[in-house]
TrEMBL record:
Signal peptide range in chain numbering: none
InterPro entries on file: Nudix_hydrolase, NUDIX_hydrolase-like_dom_sf, NUDIX_hydrolase_CS, NUDIX_hydrolase_dom
Occurrences of domain Nudix hydrolase (ranges): 15-145
Name of this protein: NUDIX hydrolase
UniProt KW keywords: Hydrolase
PANTHER family in UniProt: ADP-RIBOSE PYROPHOSPHATASE, DIHYDRONEOPTERIN TRIPHOSPHATE DIPHOSPHATASE
UniProt key word Hydrolase: yes
Length: 148
């Protein structure tokens, strides 16, 4: 893994990583990705990824959502933030992210999995019950937002 001076490994990091997600709706459906990498491989979640040095949260969200889904968005303000800490069998921190989810507007594009996504799609509230959705995504959609 190639590291820049200000980056570190994603697995067994030396400090928490800042990540961003975008909550995007179209026709009363929310955009979700099926994660392709640990720590949430195979789990449906809000799309997003790491914030790069010099990027605003909005710039990072717009870039990450396009790379991961092929969808062009306009990112807005933060609506939720949380920590995601995963430990290995020995109690060592394997992953540690601080994630900020932003409200975002759909601009254009059709969902196509890219980057680290196994799948991507638009989902109604009813469809969420049939998916393995991450707890943080379910909490955000159930408690903070109402749709279709």
């Amino acid at each position: 893994m190639k590291l820049t001076p200000d980056s570190g490994p994603k697995e067994y990091p030396v400090r928490p990583a800042l990540a961003v997600g975008a909550v995007v709706f179209k026709d009363n459906r929310v955009l979700l990705v099926k994660r392709g990498n640990p720590p949430a491989r195979g789990v449906w979640a809000i799309p997003g990824g790491s914030v790069e040095l010099g990027e605003t949260l909005q710039e990072a969200a717009e870039r990450e959502i396009f790379e991961e889904t092929g969808i062009v968005i306009k990112a807005g303000e933060p609506i939720c933030s949380f920590e995601s800490i995963h430990r290995d069998d020995k109690g060592r921190v394997r992953f540690h992210y601080y994630i900020v989810d932003l409200a975002a507007s759909y601009i254009r594009g059709a969902p196509t999995p890219g980057d680290d996504a196994l799948d991507v799609g638009w989902f109604s509230r009813e469809a969420l019950g049939r998916l393995n959705v991450s707890p943080s995504t379910r909490k955000l959609l159930d408690q903070t937002l109402t749709f279709g």
